[in-house]
Amino acid sequence: MKTARIALCQINSTVGDFSGNVEKIVRFINDADRYKPDIIAFPELAITGYPPEDLLLKPQFIEDNLNALRDIQHIVDDFIVIVGFVDKRDDIYNAIAVIHKKNIVDIYHKVHLPNYGVFDEYRYFQAGTRYPVYQMGDVTFGVNICEDIWYPEGPATIQALSGAEFIININASPYHIGKTSFREKMLSTRASDSNIIMAYLNTVGGQDELVFDGRSFVVDHDGNVISVAKQFDEDMIIVDLDLDAVFMKRLHNPRRRQQIIALGKGMVEKIIIERKKRSPTHSPIHPFTSPPLHIEEEVYNALVLGTRDYVRKNGFKKVCIGLSGGIDSSLVATIAVDAIGRDNVTGIFMPSPYTSKESREDAYELAKNLEINIIEVPINDIFETYLDTLKPQFKDMPSNTTEENIQARIRGNILMAFSNKFGWLVLTTGNKSEMSVGYATLYGDMAGGFAVIKDVAKTLVYRICKWKNQKEGKALIPERVLLKEPSAELKSGQKDTDTLPPYEILDPILKAYVEEDKSFDEIINLGCEEECVRKVIKMVDTSEYKRRQSPPGIKITPRAFGRDRRFPITNRYRSW
């Protein structure tokens, strides 16, 4: 039986941590080598971390990356390692090193460079032009990088027609809702169309706004998923590929013969790797077979991973959160506890004259349930001092959002004081619905270092909290928090609906306008009330200046603010 054994190493690299990334790669090579695989693979730009952004414009960064590659090269024995790095020629390339017996036998350059959404690879890289395949004994395979696999007539198809029996595609593919099933469908189609086995290897971990969810997988020649790695965690899967089955499939495909003729000879370079097939000493690692998670659990896990990595990779140990007794701060605190542990999370409760008895009770009950420390810092006296100080200028003018925002800014100052004094990272608690329409106070509740739920709509916040309580089998997040009407509590009797449409009406409008770029008329045609849509779009457009000054936050939708959506602050275009 003709087989090949591959090891897919789904690792969490840190951008610029060359020594740490090399140490991790070497450790995974040693762990994988116990199973005697023919090929050990690592993700896209595993050596540098992804995305390195403008670090790529620093010549020393490129050299350090090449030195790190040499450190890996020297420990590779009679097996093949493929690893992502930055190649330097007359320009720089997003590349794969194919390493065997301490030698780099070939370097593959990424052909299709993404330049949309969160990607900006034309800014940095030159595109590759080669489509090599590699022959080790009687086995032929190809490698390519991320975007290369998405093109039906791209490198993968050309390599398959040139004799490759399987392809390893290495990735740094960021997570968003729905992407998991989309990837699997695409790879399944590509594999069955080309009668080839596809191994999709993704990185995992958080990097600023991005979360990479891993969930690497292997698809057989019929398009069936045969092995899946964990989601949101480092993992290694060992898979034995049945290459006889690939051959048999191709025997029954006359269309493939015509495609090979059309391709022509000599287009693809074949590189011979002199090595004998290894004799496996252990059975393959049993694949992780659980189905994709439900949206609430998937998003929650993405938020936990993104928070954990942002905190740890930036050198923080502890965080603090302004606890209001509301649902947003409750969810952020719960995520923080799961991300870095209850001993590293502190809640700051800052009551004002308008804070309700219920909010106090809910904030303290949450802290008790999560077993986190809570500190109370009333802002009444500070607020009165502000009002007295400003009274000569404000005179007898009526109270408005000015006085409301003063309270929020006092709280922001207090949170930042704790951050400065104790070295805690402040996690802000604004959700996507609020950030979209500017229902937040600049330098107030927006003050902080990381915005955990910045890309999570309010209605999804509720769904996640309900899911979390169900999972825990108890009201970890107090039940009243899920039931009471949302309020900023910055004036007497205030409710969010005083300013905004109900969230179940607001969120679909925001999704249509922000994430799907639908026009005013198209949103009206969805059944939304005209004046409501006009008001929401105006609030979104005029709040861009606030969003530009907000902390980075985790992307979980196909269209997040910041990297995905770049809207000019100064413009006179009106679509409403």
Automatic annotation (TrEMBL):
Gene3D superfamilies in alphabetical order: Carbon-nitrogen hydrolase, HUPs
Binding-site residues for L-glutamine, renumbered to this chain: Y116, S173, K179
Keyword ATP-binding: yes
Keywords: ATP-binding, Ligase, NAD, Nucleotide-binding
GO biological process, one term: NAD+ biosynthetic process
InterPro entries in UniProt: C-N_Hydrolase, C-N_Hydrolase_sf, Gln-dep_NAD_synthase, NAD/GMP_synthase, NAD_synthase, Rossmann-like_a/b/a_fold
GO MF terms held by the record: ATP binding; glutaminase activity; NAD+ synthase (glutamine-hydrolyzing) activity; NAD+ synthase activity
E.C. no: 6.3.5.1
Domain CN hydrolase: 4-243
Binding site for deamido-NAD(+): N405, E434, K546
Catalytic residues (UniProt): E44 (proton acceptor), K110 (for glutaminase activity), C146 (nucleophile)
Similarity-based family: In the C-terminal section; belongs to the NAD synthetase family.
Main function: Catalyzes the ATP-dependent amidation of deamido-NAD to form NAD. Uses L-glutamine as a nitrogen source.
Protein name per UniProt: Glutamine-dependent NAD(+) synthetase
Source organism (scientific name): Dissulfurispira thermophila
Species classification: Bacteria, Pseudomonadati, Nitrospirota, Thermodesulfovibrionia, Thermodesulfovibrionales
